[in-house]
Structures are given as C-alpha cells and as structure tokens.
Design brief:
Radius of gyration: 18 Å
Shape: globular
Number of strands: 8
Distance between the termini: 39 Å
CATH superfamily: NAD(P)-binding Rossmann-like Domain
CATH class: Alpha Beta
Order of helices and strands: HEHEHEHEHEHEHHHEEHH
CATH architecture: 3-Layer(aba) Sandwich
Oligomer: single chain
CATH topology: Rossmann fold
Bound molecules: NADPH dihydro-nicotinamide-adenine-dinucleotide phosphate, retinal
Strand order of the largest sheet: 3-2-1-4-5-6-7-8
Number of domains: 1
C-alpha cells in the first residue's frame, strides 16, 4: 500500500523559477488545490491575487499564506464565476489596479452539484467550470499579451474522458446527470485550451490544461457517495499540496512554450513508474488516445 500511495502521489514541480515582480491570479484559491498553488507562487515572490467568491474565507487564507511565506503581497478579490456581472467587476478592478498579469490559473470548480443555473441561466458546471473562466480569460487577455511571456493554466480533469459536448442540451434542460455534467465541463476546459493556444500563437501567451490527480479536497462536497469513496481510499489520495504540482509545473517550468495547448497529467498507469509527462512528447501512443477521443466527441 505505501508503494501504491507513493506512486499515486509522486510527480513534483522541479522548477526553481522565482517570481519577484510577477503578478498572478488564481481562481478558487481559498481552499484545496488553488490554495496550495497560490501558496507556492507566493513563496516564490509573486504578487498573488486570490480570486474567491467568499471574500471572508479568502482573507483568512491570505493571512495564512502571508504568515507562512513572509510575502505580504497576497491579495483577495471577489470573483463569483457563476455570475458574469461579478466576473466583469473582478476584471475591471484588476485591470485598473495592475499593470501586468503574468500567470492566470483557472482553477475554481464545482462537481456533481444538484441541477441549478448560474445568474445568467447556464447550467452550473458548464457555467462555472468553463464559461466563467472563458469570460474571465477573455477579459484579461490583453493584459496577458502586454505582459508576455505569460501563461494561462486551465485545471481540467481525468473526467474529461467521459465528457461530451451536447450542443442540443448544453444547459442540461433535456436531460441531466450531475456526474456527467462535470465531465462535459472538464472536456470543455481542454477544448478551450487547444483552441486558445491556436489563436494565441506568436503572441507570447501560452496555455495548458492539467489533470491534478485524485486529490483530497472539498470538491466532493455535493456527493455523499464520492465523500465516502474519498474517505475509504483516503490513504491513496493526493494531498492538495501534491495536487498543485501539475498546475505549478505548467505555470513555472521553463521551455514549455512549444507545448502550448497540450494537456498535462502525471502518468497514472498503475504499477508503472509515475512521472510528469506531456503525452505528445514522451508517450506518443498515449497522446493519440485522448486526442482522437476529444475530436471524436465533437
Ligand atoms: N480534487 C480532485 O480530485 C480533482 C480536482 N480537479 C479540479 O481541480 C480544481 C480545484 O478543485 P479542488 O481544489 O479539488 O476543489 P475544492 O472544492 O476544494 O475547491 C474549489 C474552489 O473553487 C471555488 N469555487 C466554486 N464555485 C465557484 C464560483 N462560482 N466562483 C468562484 N469560485 C468558485 C471554491 O470556492 P468555495 O470554497 O467558496 O466553494 C473553491 O475555492 C477544480 O477545477 C476541479 O475540477 C480535477 C480533478 C480531480
Ligand atoms: C480506482 C481507485 C481510485 C479511483 C479514483 C478515481 C476514479 C478518481 C476520480 C477522480 C475525479 C474524476 C476527480 C475529479 O475530477 C482511488 C480513489 C485513487 C484509490 C485507488 C483505486
């Protein structure tokens, strides 16, 4: 068991890049993977914006990060991705306040919530996980271009394999399954990353999607079955700090620019040595599978 545990949670960001003078935005940074990502970026000297829907929770985390890293430039700003007004207000405030944006981590997410809609009438998973981040990225894109080289990391999931883009039922009005709705939104994250990379070619802004691994966090809050699974297998599940490593790898590692648009995850083939990889580069055959799958689905 310890050996499996080690294999399932290995893979660390080995970059030693430091970030003084760099500006970073992390969405959903008040807990889980986002919090640990923000902490590490603050540790490396960046000015880090915690974009949270609950500002009070965010302030507590900002204090904690300031204390542990000694970096006082950890700021909290309100961002509710389920409301385009809030997204526009966040972007407006940020653009007025900051001259640069070097790293945008689109990390926030919801999973398996009961059927509900965002303030603008989008199904909650696609609305928050994809459309909210899509609008946020669009609003911050000029700033990212002006600050190039800059990066956008979209936190997707292994769950994208079960995703489908049902154009005739995008808002889940005809049929809805909470688990599949999450999968669809995570597929959208990957397709968005691929197309964004294509459109941003030559701009100095690059983008990556990641699967962080299976991570102990509040993501399972809406499903008692998943909470039970996470509890049962807790020994094998990554800590949020381990879960942040793939996002950090994509945000920090030098020389990744040529891989813009690719999907990154640790190579989780049970009982095989685990390592970071960009499947296209290292295991060509593995790359073909998700690539074909993604294209077959649309
Ligand atoms: N944990 C896992 O095993 C896996 C996670 N992922 C992905 O990793 C990312 C981070 O998840 P994780 O840390 O595990 O989950 P958590 O539930 O711990 O964190 C999710 C974060 O997103 C925020 N959030 C949710 N809805 C909104 C919203 N409407 N507006 C703004 N922020 C919002 C939450 O804020 P609040 O605290 O206020 O609710 C929280 O800060 C997600 O995109 C998830 O899909 C992917 C694969 C596996
Ligand atoms: C089989 C198996 C596991 C399965 C994990 C799965 C299936 C996780 C899926 C996570 C997703 C999709 C999260 C959010 O995006 C564990 C618990 C690691 C324990 C070892 C055996």
């Amino acid at each position: 068991a310890p050996q499996i545990r080690k294999m399932l949670s290995s893979g660390v960001c080995t970059s030693t890049v430091q970030l003084p003078g760099k500006v970073v935005v992390v969405t959903g940074a008040n807990t889980g993977i986002g919090k640990e990502t923000a902490k590490e970026l603050a540790q490396r000297g960046a000015r880090v914006y915690l974009a949270c829907r609950d500002v009070e929770k965010g302030e507590l985390v900002a204090k904690e990060i300031q204390t542990t890293t000694g970096n006082q430039q950890v700021l909290v700003r309100k961002l509710d991705l389920s409301d385009t007004k809030s997204i526009r207000a966040f972007a407006k405030g940020f653009l007025a306040e900051e001259k640069h944006l070097h790293i945008l981590i689109n990390n926030a997410g919801v999973m398996m919530c009961p059927y509900s809609k965002t303030a603008d009438g989008f199904e909650m998973h696609i609305g928050v996980n994809h459309l909210g981040h899509f609008l946020l990225t669009h609003l911050l894109l000029e700033k990212l271009k002006e600050s190039a080289p800059s990066r956008i990391v979209n936190v997707s999931s292994l769950a994208h394999h079960l995703g489908r883009i049902h154009f005739h039922n995008l808002q889940g009005e005809k049929f809805y399954n909470a688990g599949l709705a999450y999968c669809h939104s995570k597929l959208a994250n990957i397709l968005f990353t691929q197309e964004l990379a294509r459109r941003l070619k030559g701009s100095g802004v690059t983008t990556y999607s990641v699967h962080p691994g299976t991570v102990q966090s509040e993501l399972v809050r809406h499903s008692s079955f998943m909470r039970w699974m996470w509890w049962l297998f807790s020994f094998f599940i990554k800590t949020p700090q381990q879960g942040a490593q793939t996002s950090l790898h994509c945000a920090l590692t030098e020389g990744l620019e040529i891989l813009s648009g690719n999907h990154f995850r640790y190579a989780c083939y049970l009982f095989l040595k685990m390592r970071f990889y960009c499947s296209k580069e290292i295991f060509g055959f593995v790359w073909v599978y998700p690539f074909l799958k993604v294209h077959r689905l649309i």
